[in-house]
Specification:
Elements: H1 5-28, H2 32-51, H3 60-93, H4 103-116, H5 119-130, H6 135-142, H7 146-171
Helix pairs in contact: 1-2, 1-3, 2-3, 3-4, 4-7, 5-7, 6-7
């Protein structure tokens, strides 16, 4: 399998595309476009596994569909975590990212703005809001005082609020 590179992948794509796409649509009640995107993302992962010798034999239809299911579940879990983090962020900071935005736009804005933060600030907010670490434990883990963590968090939130406000103004 490893040496047959593109010919094998082309064959897998042609044989399994419709089956996998339709299965994902039925199993997760997702649209055609989402199922297509999922299939294509997993094709890249699958190709890497074939080329690295991780896949040697077996029922490719089942294996490929299983990869797509796992990828979907991971993506859905991350999306749910982001939604919960936005709610947590709104509740703790008296700041509403929900006003007039659909779910996809909120997630896009918050992820775009998080990328603009310094790596330290982004990691801090990620730990506090996505991973829901307790501030006291996180401060100890980082080797700083709780007061220093609180100040850093406030600074990061202020910066994030500025970035989100700018993004909202851009989209308005």
């Amino acid at each position: 399998m490893r040496e047959s590179d593109n010919a094998l992948l082309y064959h897998i794509y042609n044989v399994h595309f419709e089956y996998c796409k339709n299965y994902l649509k039925r199993r997760f009640s997702i649209g055609d476009e989402d199922a297509y995107d999922l299939f294509m993302d997993v094709m890249v992962i699958f190709r890497a596994k074939v080329l690295n010798g991780k896949i040697t034999y077996g029922n490719l239809k089942f294996l490929y569909t299983r990869l797509a299911i796992n990828y979907y579940i991971d993506r859905h879990r991350l999306k749910s975590k982001l939604e919960a983090a936005i709610e947590n962020f709104n509740n703790k900071n008296d700041y509403d990212l929900n006003s007039g935005l659909n779910e996809e736009n909120r997630i896009t804005i918050i992820t775009t703005c998080m990328k603009k933060l310094s790596p330290k600030d982004a990691k801090l907010l990620h730990n506090l809001y996505l991973d829901e670490h307790q501030p006291e434990e996180l401060a100890a883990e980082m080797g700083i005082t709780y007061a220093a963590l609180r100040k850093r968090k406030e600074r990061a939130l202020k910066q994030l609020k500025k970035y989100t406000t700018d993004e909202l103004k851009k989209d308005a």
